[in-house]
Amino acid sequence: MARKTHKSRGWPWAAGLAFGAGYLVALACQYAGHAHRAPVLGTAAAVALSIPFAARTRRVLRGALRGLGVGLATSMGVIFGLMGAPRRVSPDVLSVDSTITVVTTLICCSGAGALFAFLAERRQRRLYGEGS
């Protein structure tokens, strides 16, 4: 199979998708009156978005890094969504929640990215008999 000769330039679109997903989750939670659930739902959306990006790689480190990038973009979207909505959250709660949101999202997305990259690598080896 021929190797790719050009680099992919789709990462800005992926980062925008992740940021938009986090932002929309935060706004939807605010308008529904459940702003306290926005970080949890944003983390779930980030993990769900990181799975397809990480499964495309066949290296565990690359999968973890892709998950880290998607998690960072989504958690920033959640934080900006909580800050910019008409029903603002108090700054004291937002500073603590934003730190916890970013850290937990990054950990969860990196772990999910590494896991699914590992599974993709294992599937590749099993299908094509590499390394056996």
- List segments where confidence is low: pLDDT < 50 over at least 5 consecutive residues: none
Biggest sheet, open or closed, and with what strands and sense?
Answer: none
Q: Could you report the average pLDDT, rounded to the nearest whole number?
A: 83
Portion in beta strands: under 5%
N- to C-terminal separation?
20 Å
> What order do the helices and strands follow?
HHHH
Q: How would you explain this protein's 3D organization?
A:
The chain is built from 4 helices and no strands. The protein has helices spanning 11-32, 38-55, 60-84, 91-128. It has one domain (36-128). The longest helix is centred in the last third of the chain and has 38 residues, at 91-128. The chain is an all-alpha fold.
Write the layout of secondary structure elements.
Elements (H helix, E strand, L loop, with lengths): L10 H22 L5 H18 L4 H25 L6 H38 L4
Helix pairs in contact: 1-2, 1-3, 2-3, 2-4, 3-4
